Amino acid sequence: MIADLFILRQQYVGKVRFSHFDTHVQSSKKVLVATERNVFAALNTRTGELFWRHVDKTGSEGNIDALLQHGQDAVLVVGNGRLLRSWEINVGGLNWEVVLDSGSFQSACLVGQQDMVKHVAVLKKTAISVHYLSNGHQKWIENLPETETVDYQAVYSDGNGEVYVLGVVPHSHIAIVVYSMEDGEIIKQMSVEAPWLYNIQASCVVVGQGMLTCVDSAGVSFYMLDLHLQLQMTQVPLQSLALEVDPGFHPVLLSHQPNPARQPLSEFFLQLGPDHYQLLQLNNGQIAAMRDFKPALLVSFATTGEKTVAAVMSPKNKTVSKCEIERSLPSRPVVNLFSAETGRRLLDTTLIVNMDPNGGKPEKLYVQAFLKKDDSVGYRAMVQTEDHTLTFIQQPGRVMWTREEALSDVVTMEMVDLPLTGTQAELEGEFGKKADGLMSMVMKRLSSQLILLQAWIGHLWKLFYDARKPRSQVKNDVTIENLSRDEFNLQKMMVMVTASGKLFGIDSKTGGILWRHYLHNVPPNAAFKLMVQRTTAHFPHPPQCTLLIKDKDTGLGTLHVFNPIFGKKSHVTPPALPQPILQSLMLPLMDQDYAKVLLLVDDQYKVSAFPSTKNVLQQLQEMAASIFFYLVDSSQGRLSGYRLRTDLSTEQIWEVIIPPEVQKIVSVKGKRPNEHVHSQGRVMGDRSVLYKYLNPNLLAVVTESTDLHQERSFIGILLIDGVTGRIIHEAIQRKARGPVHVVHSENWVVYEYWSTKSRRNEFSVIELYEGMELYNSTVFSSLDRPHAPQVLQQSYIFPSSISTMEATLTEKGITSRHLLIGLPSGGILSLPKMFLDPRRPEIVSEQSREENLIPYAPELLIRTEWFINYNQTVSRVRGIYTAPSGLESTCLVVAYGLDIYQTRVYPSKQFDVLKDDYDYMLISSVLFALFFATMISKRLAEVKLLNRAWR
Amino acid sequence: MLQRERIPLQLIFLQAALVVAWCFTDVETGPGAGVSTQPNGDRFKIEGRAIVPGIKTQDWVSTARVLVEGEEYVGFLRTDGSFAVNDVPSGSYVVEVVTPTYRFEPVRVDITTKGKMRARLVNYIKTSEVIRQPYPLQIRASGPHSYFMKRETWGWTDFLMNPMKDVYSTKKMMLVMMMVLPLLIIVLLPKVVNTNDPEMRKEMEQSMNMLNPNPELPDVSELMTKLFSGSKGSSKAGSSSKGTRPAAKRR
Q1: A473-490 as b/e, with b when 16 or more CB fall inside 10 Å?
Q2: Which residues cross the membrane (chain B) (predicted)?
């Protein structure tokens, strides 16, 4: 495999859950992020790139519960308090990892003593343990008293050698246990009446000199308790401070403890409403209001050196000049800094946040404060929005970088051909329109030819102009305006749908995001299906994609119709879907505007069409008898086939029940509709032809046994004709279990499973052949195929587990096929299908050699030369998307998962392209040499003849 | 590697529009949940160290991971290259250190229910074969990954050493043959013929026949000898061609 320049990798981390700026060095460029996708990473604050990234297991076992940072160490609590890890943040290596005793995690904090932070305390439901920061060893562990009644929720320490554990008996009292840092002995234990409290973490913070400050959920009063004295709660009504909580809003407190070995600040924020904050100060046991922020979107504290500032993001700023306000859109919030001690606004600290109008609302604000040379405070802000975007902004509003973390969770994608250029489209449009008179046609032709000429001259001029400039200055930025298809259709628009509901349009050549669109109110557990209804081939009709968004719980769906090139919502109004949707299918039918028809089947088995014009309905009535579809109900193990009636109702024609007590259906794979098969058969060694069984309606159904015992578990594979319900083939793999990955294409099915008997991964391939004769070579009909196909099967050992699998796809299907296999190690293996061929002989014969069959070997090898991504590993590959390009040899590949990786593969090498090192010199010199040689030899021959004549 | 058979074919699919994909039945939730773990069983720790000879650990540990049986259990490397994968129940696992740059051999680790550990070489074919490896694991990188094949450069020696490698080089070779052979024939042959040594000439003609093995095609040597030996050697040429024919037929 040869390195090429068309590879692109983008690495993501996921939605940020915890973030800390590295502050132990003044000039540090790191920000640590721990995300909801179980990734812990360090980002470069200047560029937004990754310094390093650690990807843990998916699911709850890798879930990051807490991130604490001290100096060069970052301590993570992972897997609901199962593991405690410490990372060295400069190189990104692990310092230590310890297993904690079982018990659900509650809270963790760093513990300091005499200004030195040496320990970390982890609070579990029933126990508290303290570990050394240097090596993770446990200093002490103590069981908490009265765990049956008290719900311990928070742990606090302020550097005086004591650890406070705060628990609550809901609606009764607060329980406080004070442990000695030295040996874990209980120093004090007491309970204080608090009938209004049920959740400490939601409504209490520690402020100032150990003052536990709470606010009740109704928002009536503050309650304060000195942790050192612990006498009684003092109640301060909010009204006495002239504060009022928005009706129905649960007030939230925010405090700040810059150094775990010191006491927290005595200033804190109280959020009174969705856009209303109040800065308060605790002074000698008295709360005083300092400053009111309304409207304010987000607030945050930041500390640098000895100074602490409060950053407040507000929708707009009154102090900036008037023209600024006029220019600023409603979606342009502004961040300002305020001194935490005084509440005064700091001068020249305004930062304008340019929000993407197609993005979401800001959700979190992280502020990196630093001291400037004149000792004033400067800052940069990292804003996280609800569409998982991270934006890092410098004063006065320069966006340093943006990370679209929504792309770490791509659910589905499509590649759409780019449109022709304007001039080409003009020319095409000429043919599309109806003829209107000879003269006007001629005029139109002439004018379009003129436009072409003009464009050509413009192009020549640009070439000439660019040639004079140094190469580095010639920019080839792709913007949405100059998008156009290239000669071989290698550049396409990747339309990506992410789980957060944000859609992206990415240029496949540069990897640049050309458009983004955030869909609000997408349910969190939605399933998506993206369909291309109209491609770019039908100028002047714009291309059209339809996204079906379905709530997995209710089954209710919505349609989002948009233009895949510009991302704009289409003016076509999709139909409302009042009924839960069971199935959706694209028909090859088109309406008069060349949009393919989308059929939606609801739970009443009624079918609705989109678009549903008269033309479409008429076509559907004509075609109804030959439209079949199938439904899968995996919970009841039911596969059923339906046929469309002319009145758009349906009729069940077959049903296969797979008993769900014994085995469950895990996946059903059909063939890809855009797949071409070039050769209908295989030429055998004796020159006869073995014809392939190419049934376009074939479904591969994979089942797994419900019994997971390693002796009794099995997986099954059923090949069913989707029209007639006829079972073509059935295979059972005993002592095997999933996850099963399947690829179904042409006349073969490849699947991978785990063999419990031999504890290894195995591949199996099934190929279907009609035999030496073809029943009906022109038309394939599922209804008229009397002979069952011949089935060949072979299995192989694969020395790794796999994450996903897909087959390459080319324009005409001439190129040999490869399987693209995503490995957990991050490689994407391109395995030639030749190795998975059930006709591989055990004993080599003359005929098999003639056929180029590789002798059977039980083990498939993973050769790193076959990795299409080289050392650019891709984490947690979830899917691989393949698309044909205009070149037969070339297949476009996109792997998505945590990362996105885009490349081109050439399964049969680039047989239709001259290599870039093609030796033009040699070929032309040979030609010239030949030419001269003929000239010379002609001359010599003449001389010789003449001489002979003289003799 | 093209498919050799090219039978033109038009599969007009029955318009039975079969459904494209199966989107709304939860594929993702199915298999992942199938891994059975015994919540009460003891959990053990797989320990070891990965070494890349000659490379400082901090240069590669941040990109490395320890994968136990795929991604079922994941461990990370400490700054000194050692690792521990916690929370692994008893069983038999393939432990692999993966980095984008260095290649490590996988090791199979067996853990008994009592927590006794054993490491052995991975053998997927004879799964019960035991070739002991040290435990705690000592995994030494066997060198950098080779992702790239050497580019097929094309030199003059390729003509002789490795003809017909692919379509492209075959074309080139034909071109060069076209150039070199006539030259040889034009320049060398007359000289050989002019020596008037009949033995030599016979030999030469035979070798020319070798180059042109197909008996149906016009015999190059015959043509050549006719051309160059002129009128005086016409009878001799005839006899010589008789001599060569059997040689050709033998093939």
Answers
A1: eeeeebeeeebebeeebb
A2: 173-193
| Mean pLDDT computed over A707-735 | 89
Distance CA A835, CA A814 (A): 18
What DSSP state is assigned to residue A345?
Answer: B
- pLDDT per position as a tens digit, A358-401: 778 888 999 888 888 888 888 889 999 888 899 999 888 888 99
Q: Are A569 and A559 in contact (CB under 8 A)?
A: no
Strands of A828-832's sheet in order across: A804-807, A818-822, A828-832
Tell me the nearest-neighbour CA distance from B216 into chain A, angstroms: 25
Report how far residue A498's alpha carbon sits from residue A512's, in angstroms, rounded to the nearest whole number: 16
| Separation between Cα atoms, residue B87 and residue B115, nearest integer Å | 12
pLDDT for the residue A762: 92
Q: How many residues does chain A have?
A: 951
Among the listed ranges A157-166, A193-202, B166-175, which one has the minimum average pLDDT value? B166-175
pLDDT band at B32 (very low <50, low <70, confident <90, very high): very low
Using an 8 Å Cβ cutoff, are A448 and A425 in contact? no
Helix, strand, coil percent values for chain B (each to nearest 5): 35, 25, 45
pTM of structure? 0.81
Listed in sequence order, the residues at least 6 apart from A473 whose beta carbon sits closer than 8 Å to its beta carbon are none
Q: Which residues of B touch A739 (CB under 8 A)?
A: 30-32, 34
Residue B10 has pLDDT above 50, yes or no: no
Chain B, nearest residue to A715 by Cα: B31
Paired with B203 in beta bridges are none
**CA A845 and chain centroid, separation:** 49
The dihedral sign for the CA sequence B195, B201, B207, B211: positive
Q: Distance (Å, rounded) from C-alpha A65 to C-alpha A34?
A: 9
Distance from C-alpha of A412 to C-alpha of A358, rounded to nearest angstrom: 20
pLDDT tens-digit series, residues A804-839: 999 999 988 888 999 999 999 888 999 999 999 998
State yes or no: ipTM above 0.85.
no
Rounded Cα gap, residues A338 and A311, in angstroms: 6
Cα separation, A130 vs A132, whole angstroms: 7
| Mean of pLDDT values over A711-740 | 89
- Per-residue burial over A32-52, b = 16 or more CB atoms within 10 Å of its CB, e = otherwise: bbbbbbbbbbbbebeebebbb
List of E strands, chain B: 12-13, 43-51, 65-68, 73-76, 82-89, 91-98, 102-104, 107-111, 117-121, 132-133, 137-144
3-class DSSP string for A125-185: CCEEEEEECCCCCEEEEEECCCCCCCEEEEEECCCECEEEEEEEECCCEEEEEEEECCCCC
Q: How far apart are CA A36 and CA A384, in angstroms?
A: 14
* B34 with A708: Cβ contact below 8 A: yes
Q: Which residue has the tokens 């136990």?
A: B68
Mind listing the pLDDT tens digit for each residue in A294-314?
888 889 998 887 888 899 988
Tokens of A572: 């076509």
Q: Give how far A527 is from chain B: nearest CA, Å.
A: 7
B-chain residues near A933 (CB < 8 A): 179, 182-183
Of B25, B58, B67, the CB nearest to A93: B58
- Count CA atoms closer than 13 A to A594's CA, side-chain side: 12
> For residue range A858-876, what is the model confidence (pLDDT) as tens digits?
999 888 888 888 888 898 8
Picking from A406, A412, A498, A528, the residue whose alpha carbon sits closest to that of residue A879 is A412
Please write the tens of the pLDDT for every residue from A610-638.
888 888 888 888 888 888 888 888 888 88
